[in-house]
């Protein structure tokens, strides 16, 4: 088993500070495996027998010192008021409850209504590059990071991804409230894959699906809540230039994206006209996932002007602003960094970072040209 040291440290830190922690993330990302490695009493609230067992053992669970792990907590809404009462009765006792669940309207409604101010959220992503030291970067990019999705057993890709999405479309998303039929959901997933990394055009997608653009946006809310896609908002700068004001949309896991687009091997991936957008989305997710594991908070954006100046990722840390440009090349020329600097000057960015597949990384003051592993290793030092 691969030990997920950074996210485990973050989870333990939050449990030391809060009475309850919710570990959220997509299906099959490894939440249950990680939680059970912490020890304590485990209850799968999707199962009637475990709900009954928790009900009968409630007094001993809440009065004892062992961590109580409640998996798929959204399946038993009655537990949330009871959790609130147990936490409020002994507010100074920390690390008592660990809730697991894929984000759904039911889970987040219960958390916000019953446990606001009493609980900390930790997100578990599929494996990051930093957690798969023995797997080549290109392989992680092609297959994605899901533990069962092929990155640890090549024979599983892309069959696992197709089965995974089929189950989400037919069972999980409808159970979470998505009103679309599975066939419509699949068409939407395919359209988002085809427009991966592009500025969001809900009207165009709505016309193709035969629904209104508010309906498309509503459906996409569910996909975002299931950790399938990310909407990256535009950075609003006070400039005289006209700015793009719609978000970009990315598939969060590159393996799911590539399976939908019928890519099976790394060689096939490199021949596709959209390969640069795939690399861009992969790098963005790796950066944001690594920041979260390090407990470093930044608001992510992109920046684009109507006359073509663009930054793929703007990270607002509050005290500093980073401009990150992503290029799929092993030999980034000086022109790439010069254009990044001109665009970053519009934002007064504190760091200007060009991420490529270069074998050598260079840093000079606020300007950095590097590969992805170098950046992920040094991000905390750069703040």
Kindly summarize this structure in a few lines.
By secondary structure, the chain is α/β, with parallel strands linked by helices.
Features of this protein?
Trna Endonuclease, Chain: A, domain 1; 13 strands; five-stranded parallel sheet; 3 domains; 44% helix; 383 residues; 16 helices; single chain; six-stranded mixed sheet; Arc Repressor Mutant, subunit A; Rossmann fold; alpha/beta
How is this structure best described in words?
By secondary structure, this protein is of the alpha/beta class. It has 3 domains: 5-123, Rossmann fold (3-Layer(aba) Sandwich); 129-231 and 248-265, Arc Repressor Mutant, subunit A (Orthogonal Bundle), CATH 1.10.10; 285-382, Trna Endonuclease, Chain: A, domain 1 (3-Layer(aba) Sandwich). 44% of the residues lie in helices and 17% in strands. It has 16 helices and 13 strands. The chain has helices spanning 5-17, 31-37, 48-56, 58-63, 79-89, 105-114, 137-143, 159-175, 182-194, 202-209, 213-225, 254-260, 266-270, 275-293, 334-347, 372-382; strands at residues 20-24, 41-44, 68-71, 97-101, 119-123, 229-232, 248-251, 299-304, 310-316, 321-326, 351-356, 362-364, 367-371. The strands form 3 sheets. Strands 8-9-10-11-13-12 form a 6-stranded mixed sheet, sandwiched between helices. It has a 5-stranded parallel sheet with strand order 2-3-4-1-5, with helices on both faces. A two-stranded antiparallel sheet has the order 6-7. Strand 10 (321-326), helix 15 (334-347) and strand 11 form a beta-alpha-beta unit. Helix 7 (137-143) packs across helix 12, helix 8 (159-175) packs across helix 12 (254-260) and helix 10 crosses helix 11. It starts with a helix and ends with a helix. The relative contact order is 0.10. The model has no long low-confidence stretch (mean pLDDT 93).
